[in-house]
Amino acid sequence: MAGHHRRAAVLCGIGTWLPPRVVTNADLARQLDTSDEWIRTRTGIRERRVIDRGMSTSVLAVEAGARALKSSGSSEVDLVVVATTTPDHPCPSTAPEVAHRLGLTGVAAFDLNAVCAGFVYALATAAGHIAAGSAERVLVIGADTFTTVLNPLDRTTLAIFGDGAGAVVLRAGTPDEPGALGPFDLGADGSNADLLIVPAGGSEQRGSGEPLDPADVHFRMDGQPVFRNAVTRMSESAVKVLDRAGWRVEDVDRFACHQANARIISAVARDLAVPQERFVLNVDRVGNTVAASIPLVLADAAAAGDIEPGHRVLVTSFGAGLGWGSTVLTWPELDLG
Ligand code: ACO
């Protein structure tokens, strides 16, 4: 079927915000039994940002959201989606307050939790609303303060995660214009839910009648199976989305993977037989920022000229759940602020 009457979601604005406090590997090594050398060689991370007292996910989300709206040239949207696993409160969701603080009181707003795959899931959700005609413009924010759920004694997770936010504006357009989001591939595997988990704080723990184990309020991760799943799931999802888009792997100018570990990204490049140079990277400066990772790496690469208008870009992400997701787009001209 010719797609002349089909609506597509088109990327028309992008913005990011990082809390100002930098925590270097050397800073971590002063508090814990770790070293700059270990963290750099095992993960590629040199530093990450951490919120200061008084900040929360909504603060980061509002800053990134305001920049994305400005970049899009209009502050009018009819839906706000905040992808986050670290909402300000268990109830209510963070998006209504974020929308209110952006001057969007009354606009539909909700949170979406798909952990590190959250931003791609949120893009797919927003694109679905636009395709169905239930929204014309959507603000999609990925924001997390994952350092707030880390165990202060766990050197492995403290080394990996950082706080941040990134946002995009999607508008209704046509599938053939630059910025149009292509097909999506989304997937999940709940049989491995316990590989990355915050055991307490939810209904299971509260309903158990058991006393709270204080360690269970923190995130825990079984690193090696997560590493292997990350490589396999992102590689397979990339192949599936390329197939749906009718692109060959060599048609892709830039790959933007979830930034969790530079070695995971190298392994995906090897699996796909693509030169490493086509993979954009900012994990060295921000670590794993969970739902913020994809918009942060896209915005950083665009600002650095590493992603240019006209580039064919493949986005792929993976995280707790397990969950993963991919999409493609041709990079549009954007106001990068
Ligand atoms: N500093 C020094 N040593 C450390 C540190 C540290 N920060 N962390 C772990 N080690 C030690 C371990 O204790 C272990 O010591 P041992 O051999 O004496 O037992 C040794 O280093 C090797 O540990 P491994 O776990 O085998 O190290 P590995 O090379 O697998 O790297 C890592 C660990 C970085 C966590 C890796 O497994 C990884 O990146 N996993 C994927 C994480 C990920 O992608 N998460 C993304 C999803 S997150 C989400 O969705 C919320």
UniProtKB/TrEMBL annotation:
One of its GO terms (molecular function) is 3-oxoacyl-[acyl-carrier-protein] synthase activity. Residues 242-331 form the Beta-ketoacyl-[acyl-carrier-protein] synthase III C-terminal domain. HAMAP family: FabH. The active site is at residues 116, 258, 288. SUPFAM superfamilies: Thiolase-like. Homodimer. Gene3D superfamilies: 3.40.47.10. Its main location: cytoplasm. It is found in: Cytoplasm. Its EC number is 2.3.1.180. Residues 110-190 form the Beta-ketoacyl-[acyl-carrier-protein] synthase III N-terminal domain. The keyword Lipid biosynthesis applies. Catalyzes the condensation reaction of fatty acid synthesis by the addition to an acyl acceptor of two carbons from malonyl-ACP. Catalyzes the first condensation reaction which initiates fatty acid synthesis and may therefore play a role in governing the total rate of fatty acid production. Possesses both acetoacetyl-ACP synthase and acetyl transacylase activities. Its substrate specificity determines the biosynthesis of branched-chain and/or straight-chain of fatty acids. GO terms for biological process: fatty acid biosynthetic process; secondary metabolite biosynthetic process. This is Beta-ketoacyl-[acyl-carrier-protein] synthase III. Belongs to the thiolase-like superfamily. FabH family. Keywords: Acyltransferase, Cytoplasm, Fatty acid biosynthesis, Fatty acid metabolism, Lipid biosynthesis, Lipid metabolism, Multifunctional enzyme, Transferase. NCBIfam families: fabH (TIGR00747), PRK09352.1 (NF006829). The last Arg residue of the ACP-binding site is essential for the weak association between ACP/AcpP and FabH. Pathway: Lipid metabolism; fatty acid biosynthesis. Pfam families: ACP_syn_III, ACP_syn_III_C. Residues 259-263 are annotated as: ACP-binding. It is an enzyme of class 2 (transferase). CDD domains: KAS_III (cd00830).
